[in-house]
Amino acid sequence: AGVRLITRDLQEVVGMDELRRIVNERGTPLKVYWGTAPTGRPHVGYFVPMCKIADLLEAGCDVTVLFADLHAYLDNMKAPWELLDLRVRYYEAVIKAMLSSIGVPLERLTFVRGTDFQLSREYTLDVYRLASAVTEHDAKKAGSEVVKQVDHPRLAGLLYPGLQALDEEFLHVDAQFGGVDQRKIFMLADKYLPALGYKKRIHLMNPMVPGLQGSKMSSSEDGSKIDVLDSPKEVAAKVRKAFCEEGVIEGNGLLAFARHVIFPL
After folding, report:
1. Which residues contact 186 (CB under 8 A, 6 or more apart)?
2. Is the separation of the CB atoms in 257 and 235 below 8 Å?
3. Percent of the chain, pLDDT > 70?
4. Between vectors from CA 168 to CA 87 and to CA 66, what angle results, nearest 5°?
5. What stretch of H or E contains 6?
6. The whole model's pTM is what?
């Protein structure tokens, strides 16, 4: 029952045998983390991982929410250094409000900032160790669906996937949960963490909810998303303009949101 609840409505699980072993045999809770980089304003698509966090808690897992502030800076400086603290505080307030709105007990979650541990001596040394192992090709490929792609990429964007891999070790988790757009970063972690003497982790991936115009719901594309701060009038206007062709299920953001958020609740 625990495994079924943990994997319900996920698109993919890498490490299913280990997941079953931990849940059915180990005798201590599965430790999972979900991370979010404070790059834009959270939108209603965030309710998809929020619903899964509710499932994980119901299944008896220990869940950590990571506010990946350093990652937001590394991703083409989407969050300037001087704004990082304010962005994280905003994200923390919004994410906690979203979780509370669907009945998730916040006292059962652990909230962490990336800079709480990513600036330590041990973590920094592992960044260098990882940089000596990961190829430029693998780093670029791993971040291709997450890190903003530009003609002349900065070195920071190549570091991003490796840091996310190291987070699994330094947060002392069994599994990382994220959108299927994170898959290439998860596979980088699978490949390179053992090279540093660390174990592979389980990777849990939820489907990506399409945006209102058919592409991925994105914080950087205003027309594709419903912002959590939008007024009822703005929400109604965006819903009326949404792509919703009769008989077409693929790429239909409204149907996907109903399936993955409204119906489970």
Report:
1. 14, 176, 178, 203, 205
2. no
3. 94
4. 20
5. helix 2-7
6. 0.90
